[in-house]
Amino acid sequence: MTAGSPETPSAGATPSAGAKPSAGAKPSAGAKPAATERPAASDFIRERVQRDIEQGTFGGRVQTRFPPEPNGYLHIGHAKAITQDFVTAESFGGICNVRFDDTNPDTEEVEFVESILADIEWLGFHPANVFYASDYFEQLYDWALHLISNNLAYVDEQDGDTISAQRGGYGRPGIESPYRDRPVAESLDLFARMRAGEFDEGAMCLRAKIDMQSDNMWLRDPVLYRIRHGHHHRTHDAWVIYPTYDWAHGQSDAIEGVTHSICTLEFDSHRPLYDWCLDNLPLPYEQPQQIEFARLEFTHTVTSKRRLKKMVAEGVVDGWDDPRMPTLAGLRRRGYPPSAITTFCVEIGTARTNARHAIESLEAVVRRQLNAVAQRRMAVLRPIKLTLTNWPTNDDGTPVVEWFDLTNNPENPDDGTRRVAFTGNLVIESEDFALDPPPKFFRLSVGREVRLRGAYLVTATDVVTDDDGNVVEVLATYDPETRGGDAPDGRKVKSTMHWVSVPHSTPLTAALYDRLFAAEVPGEATGESLDDLNPNSRELLTGCLGEASLADVEGGQVVQFERLGYFAADPDQPGLFHRTVGLKDEWAAIQRRQQKA
RNA sequence: AGGGGUAUGGUGUAAUUGGCAACACGAGUGAUUCUGGUUCACUUAUUCUAGGUUCGAGUCCUAGUACCCCUGCCA
Prior knowledge:
Blueprint: H1 16-19, H2 44-55, E1 63-66, H3 76-90, E2 95-100, H4 110-123, E3 130-132, H5 137-149, E4 153-156, H6 160-166, H7 184-196, E5 205-208, E6 223-227, E7 241-243, H8 245-256, E8 260-264, H9 271-279, E9 289-293, E10 296-298, H10 305-313, H11 328-334, H12 338-347, E11 355-357, H13 359-373, E12 375-377, E13 379-380, E14 383-388, E15 402-407, E16 417-422, E17 425-429, E18 449-452, E19 457-465, E20 471-478, E21 496-497, E22 500-501, E23 505-513, E24 538-547, E25 558-561, E26 565-569, E27 576-582, H14 586-596
Parallel strand pairs: 1-2, 2-3, 8-9, 10-11, 12-25, 14-20, 18-21, 23-27
Antiparallel strand pairs: 4-5, 5-6, 6-7, 13-24, 14-17, 15-16, 17-22, 18-19, 19-20, 23-24, 25-26, 26-27
Helix pairs in contact: 3-12, 8-9, 12-13
This protein binds one RNA strand through helix 6, strand 5, strand 6, helix 8 and strand 11.
């Protein structure tokens, strides 16, 4: 049960058109929930596809693929490639498949296959098919035989270091292997015995016979097959020789009927090799074309798989889905709407310029989308007591409880209202009170009147301090005439603040996040080490109090804590909220400016 | 050193292919607002440099500069 299992289109059985996976192209990834519209994009890739369609190349057909190696978790950088692949296809009515480039048994695991598939679905894309390069191993082997027979490949018995040394250098010639001109029959025999498992890893390999003097290193007799005795996650122990990326990729594209093989810039020196392989094979298929674009990188963000792995291994984060991680799993836990990610990927456009985007611009899209859909709630993260000294009591001596209907989302009236309880026993945000208010501070201080959102206008009258002089409680009076938050005499207040009635509150823990790396370009100075990690990237706030309805938020849901930001309920731990992203904070900006002045 | 690629506001992309440099984000100013949120208005450019062709150049030509990628039996 190795290559060419019946449900896959491998093994060169069928000629051209019939060979492409017919599989009912799913409607389109765009057909997802509302408010997730991705804007239309035009970029140099789509212009080129457009031209191919007009010229009738590939019979007007468009097919792309996203080809991950299942050796790790997907991150934000992959999201760009995924979006590019799927959107390019779908905007021309074509299809996009996922193909796992699983040609290296040493690094690949089923766990990663599953997480990758889940992440792609989460982004809102539905691959027409899921393929595996390992399904084509038999066909790839046959084609290697064809190459050898045509004197275009040979078995080299030198070790890796020797081959590497003979490759030469930039501007310096390569040296041909002494095995380069061995008889075809000898290579054929050796290659068969490689497959049969007669040799150790590294004992020999199959090399293409191209040009040891080429300016392009990938054309200096690249290795096509190597011996690996490890266990493959899919073909198990059926094979001990494995094709390299270069021998597998283009042919896999061709087998599947890919028309435009979109990849990142660093592969552009492979393109001549990609074409060489296809040119020298008796392909019953149209020849796919590789197109490269610049990968997506962000400031303060690491997308090197090596470093990400290291962070997980050394425990500086909680795992691949730590909300600080740039992995899709991490962003999901953090509360990023998938459509914000794909929208961003489309909006930034596609070019061949290496660029590093400000992470803030991604956050801006997240805010924009969340603002439209996230329901508003009140939660006090750093509480300070606010006691209304003139709050009435019932006849039996218990405090009066009033209920207010608060708007769930002013941006979306259809979301309705919720009931929130109000008493004289309140908490407010401690930074909303100042004993000695700085300039432009509009919030509460003694003698000043502010609005408690949706409830009453209150005036601070006094404070209670502890032995050290810290304010532990603010005393205030409310104006009974201002029920709902408006004064009949029309007087204005400069600030509206969120609040929670203590007897009606639910306890919460809030995780606030800062950049994982303080440096704009992480690793620039420190390389692979984790020395430049921001030690304060997470601030865990316990003892937060939220309005009662916050106890009902389902895991994964994102709400706006009014005036504080968007918070995602942790899927596993009830009462834990991750701050997805803060609101724009004008007051913080004012303070920053005052500091500078 | 050889080859390949790329240069447009603080950032990222556009520019009907030779015809008024546009959009988004950020930043700033002001207005609106029961979230210092949202929304609205305005402000923010010697198109890498130097020459050249042209009535006209981000776009074409010449020379230069900077950055990225390529010497895995990784992908």
